[in-house]
Amino acid sequence: MKKIYLPLLLFAGAISAGVMSSCNKDFLEKPKGGAVTVDTIFHTQMQAQYAVAEMYKWCIPSGFVLTESADCREDALTDNVYLTLPGAAWVGGNYNYQYYLSGTMTPAGTIDRGPTALGRGDAPSFNGWYKAIRKANLVIKNIDAVTDATPQWISDVKGQALFCRAMAHYSAFRMFGGIPIVTAVLAGDGKISIPRSSVQSVVDSIVTWCDQAAVLLPATRGSVDYGRVTSLAALALKARILLYAASPLYNTPSEMKSLIAGARFGDGRDTVLCYATYDKERWKKAADAAKAVIDAAPAAGVSLYNTGKPTTTVNTDTYAGLGDYEAVCNNVYGTTGAYGNPEMILVNTFNQKDPDKSQWNEWGFYNTSKIRMNQWGAKNNVPIEFLQMYEKTDGTKWTATPSGKDFKAYFEGLNLDPRAYQCLAYAGQRWNSARTFVTYYKGSGDVPLSYSQGALCDDTNAGDATGSAIETTKFVARVDNMNDNHFAWPVFRLAEFYLSYAEAINEYSGANGDATSYLNLIRARAGMPAKTPASTADFRTAIQNERSVEFAFENKRYDDLHRWLTAQTVMNQTFHGFAVTASTNGVTPKPTNPFLNWVTISYGTRVFPAKYYYVPFPLDQISMLYLGGKGWDGQNPGW
């Protein structure tokens, strides 16, 4: 398998010489000097491949925690994950996690950490996105100069670069709103001012680049090129940006304007934050784009992964034992040794098994979960408020019982949506043969038959002494001797566009049969009963819940809460967890595995100011006064 994301030594040396490097001071400045020229890099196909590899490394996102010690899942910024404070503050240092949760984020310390590619080096927040854009623009500008490549190869690479430019712009847009659009390799000789563009301009540009890329790219690729973009990936990015553009954050109905008032200027500057008026037709464009992905999927060899096995076989550690939902994110090699699974449209093939890491610095393992490294590490606790979004298997809701005497029996007895049990680990569970009884519990006070604190309960570095009972283990190797090679980060998978289509159709024409059908195809794969919401509002509630559980821990929650304008409701509250303590519960002789008595505990109150809907630009960029216009420095409202 060709791992196109990896930097090659020759290319790394060429880049360090200057021609392909990004800016030294800000994203508009081109570095000067350097012995290596553009002609050197783009002379032969072999040399040009290095530029393509570097472009992928910077532009294709990954949600995996990689080599940074102060790094965590983006989901920690939402109700998906809670890292116990204050002890685990360092784990989310790259996101300024503790300040974000308390409502005290600043332009000097925001959640924007720039591209998360391996080896991103000194790429600072915001500037890093433009380093990625520069990589793509250099390829677009110079690929025709390659002397020994076929026209077909050059055309294909242009399509890949157009997609990468679109992806990098999208990645910045989703946080900041309207951003500068950069389509040229900037000269950087002196001050060059490129102000923020309107939401409409950014969205239209991304859509145009995706359309252009889709024409140039092939529908399918062989396994040797697994991870390269296809025409379907370009359609997928187009569908995603159009869904976001149609959503209330940008396309705000009059009845929702009060929800976002604190993050708007109330004048002409708002064009960089939203469309001037609500237009229902944007939902139609989003629906059509999502349906285009669905319709093009069969020719691309893409289909919903559905073997008819909705639940994981209990007490098995093999790939064959996985339920379909767990298999979706574990299936790189598949059941027959072939790469990929049919649901994946585009993946970032780099996983947490980084050969460049020392054993001590395997932060992806340490910070993604506690169970993966069997003691040391940060527990990615899941708040009860999010757990309650998982319905019972009969489709009904549930409310947490505040205390009890056998947590394993209680949690399994809830008979939750099978997706919950396929991406969570919980106290007392047999997670796999290596971990057996999950020891998240605090020590027992029973005398004389006490139990010591569980090995997975506390680590002074991560600061979790609560005995919290549940953490996410999605993308944590459980089967096949804990083999991380089963993982690849899903940039796009087909299920997203089933639910995007259903959401957009409902907003445009109501809860009709087509919308309901695609909602229920996802529920059926999960082993959940069908829903038939009668009203647009009821269907909106159903589809938002469905996206929340289907894409839990896949870094979609942050974007969804923002675009729906529900973040203020969801995030401005006190979160809770289950805390468990070992006990014999009076049973003699002492059981080998303790009973786990539980109580609910507070994870603290989070604060989400309205201004959080848009991330602030760094002060060094604001001070250069190129982002805004006359009498305006370009900063987002409230910052």
From TrEMBL:
<feature type="signal peptide">
    <location>
        <begin position="1"/>
        <end position="21"/>
    </location>
</feature>
<keyword id="KW-0998">Cell outer membrane</keyword>
<dbReference type="Pfam" id="PF07980">
    <property type="entry name" value="SusD_RagB"/>
</dbReference>
<comment type="similarity">
    <text>Belongs to the SusD family.</text>
</comment>
<dbReference type="Pfam" id="PF14322">
    <property type="entry name" value="SusD-like_3"/>
</dbReference>
<dbReference type="InterPro" id="IPR011990">
    <property type="entry name" value="TPR-like_helical_dom_sf"/>
</dbReference>
<feature type="domain" description="RagB/SusD">
    <location>
        <begin position="342"/>
        <end position="639"/>
    </location>
</feature>
<keyword id="KW-0472">Membrane</keyword>
<protein>
    <submittedName>
        <fullName>RagB/SusD family nutrient uptake outer membrane protein</fullName>
    </submittedName>
</protein>
<dbReference type="InterPro" id="IPR033985">
    <property type="entry name" value="SusD-like_N"/>
</dbReference>
<dbReference type="InterPro" id="IPR012944">
    <property type="entry name" value="SusD_RagB_dom"/>
</dbReference>
<keyword id="KW-0732">Signal</keyword>
<feature type="domain" description="SusD-like N-terminal">
    <location>
        <begin position="125"/>
        <end position="243"/>
    </location>
</feature>
